[in-house]
Write a structure and sequence with these properties.
It contains 14 helices and 15 strands. The chain is an alpha/beta fold. Helix 1 runs parallel beside helix 2, helix 7 packs across helix 12 and helix 12 packs across helix 13.
Length: 364
């Protein structure tokens, strides 16, 4: 079976996450996959990574700039025709528009099927989200054969499409699965939340709760680590200083995936304060690495977190403060939860995810 797999996104180019997915698909039996993407790379070396894994790909100049629509239609329709492609997997609405034009208007004799992964729907903007649900939902209803969603949160927002939806998690990089034993340092609390400093991620909520915790316990050793960059970083650095915890809140800046993984390993708690997620890698990464999860009820959290077994839910600053106080007095609970997560980590391994993906392809 031949599969054409879009591996890039708007203004990003070749995506790190989609590169890993493409490599995992390429290892499947009876599937011959071709990745297509624009000329940019999210991280240097991704194209070389595909070449090293002997993955077939084609670079389509300008694909991720959202212009020259008909030029892209011509280039991609030629690939579909020449490679005899029966299934095309797209990642965003621009790609869906191109592929739908090819299928329904340009070359009706190209009888291929369309898979769409629902990565987002303006879910961080309450008003825009309602409009996006109508527009995206209508497009997916008429134009796609199958829709992949990554959490029940997404399904709940598109229930009318449930007859063509399939839940398949995103996988986590293989390097997160290298360790065979889970070791958790319980001497002090070490919290981490890697995310862009922008509206909706709410690092200030974590900083304020952590500040209350430090003031209440007079703990001068516990740490909160906030990797990432963004427009709100300076403001949040100032907030930490104002609360008197500037030395205990660490801002490492932008880090590579391997550097973030190393920081995760030095921590015992992953905290996620986002307003909304469709999946939430910052939830799954510490889960896979065997850490305790403290999260708002967003993205995949409701699918995998059972209160007190895999972590805890919080909604506001005071909730998080109370949980930190409890865990500080019951550190063995951190170890128990961490080990529970570590023992269930393989559900997010690409080898597990890609098998479910293969089943989907052969059901089409």
């Amino acid at each position: 079976m031949n599969l054409l797999f879009f591996t890039s996104d708007y203004k990003i180019g070749l995506s790190s996450l989609l590169t890993d997915q493409l490599i995992a698909i390429n290892k499947l039996d009876k599937i011959s996959v071709i990745g297509i993407f624009g000329e940019q790379e999210q991280e240097k070396g991704l194209r070389a990574k595909l070449a090293n894994d002997k993955v077939s790909f084609k670079v389509i100049e300008g694909l991720d700039q959202h212009s020259n629509f008909f030029g892209l239609v011509n280039k991609i329709s030629k690939i579909i025709s020449e490679e005899d492609i029966p299934i095309v997997h797209v990642q965003n609405n621009w790609q869906l528009a191109i592929i739908s034009y090819i299928k329904y208007l340009k070359w009706k004799r190209l009888n291929f099927k369309i898979i769409y992964t629902l990565h987002g729907f303006r879910h961080n903007h309450p008003v825009k989200m309602q409009l996006a649900r109508v527009f995206i939902g209508s497009s997916l209803f008429f134009l796609t054969n199958r829709i992949i969603y990554m959490s029940d949160y997404v399904m709940n927002n598109f229930r009318l499409l449930s007859f063509k939806m399939e839940k398949i998690y995103l996988g986590i990089d293989d390097t997160f699965f290298l360790k065979m034993e889970n070791k958790v340092d319980l001497e002090v609390l070490r919290l981490i939340f890697p995310a862009e400093f922008r509206k909706g991620k709410n690092q200030d909520l974590i900083i304020k709760a952590f500040g209350k915790f430090i003031k209440e316990t007079r703990d001068n050793k516990s740490q909160l680590i906030l990797p990432g960059t963004g427009v709100l970083m300076v403001e949040y650095k100032n907030l930490a200083r104002e609360l008197g915890i500037g030395e205990q809140v660490i801002f490492p800046g932008f880090l590579s995936k391997s550097e973030v993984r190393e920081l995760y390993e030095s921590c015992n708690i992953g905290v996620i304060s986002s307003n909304s997620e469709t999946f939430g890698q910052s939830i799954v990464e510490p889960y896979v690495l065997g850490k305790c999860i403290l999260t708002r009820n967003v993205g995949v959290a409701a699918d995998i977190v059972m209160e007190g077994e895999n972590g805890y839910f919080f909604e506001n600053e005071n909730d998080l403060f109370e949980i930190l106080l409890y865990l500080n007095s019951n550190k063995k609970k951190i170890k128990l939860i961490s080990d529970n997560n570590f023992s269930n980590r393989n559900k997010f391994a690409w080898r597990t995810v890609s098998k479910k993906y293969s089943n989907l392809l052969f059901k089409l």
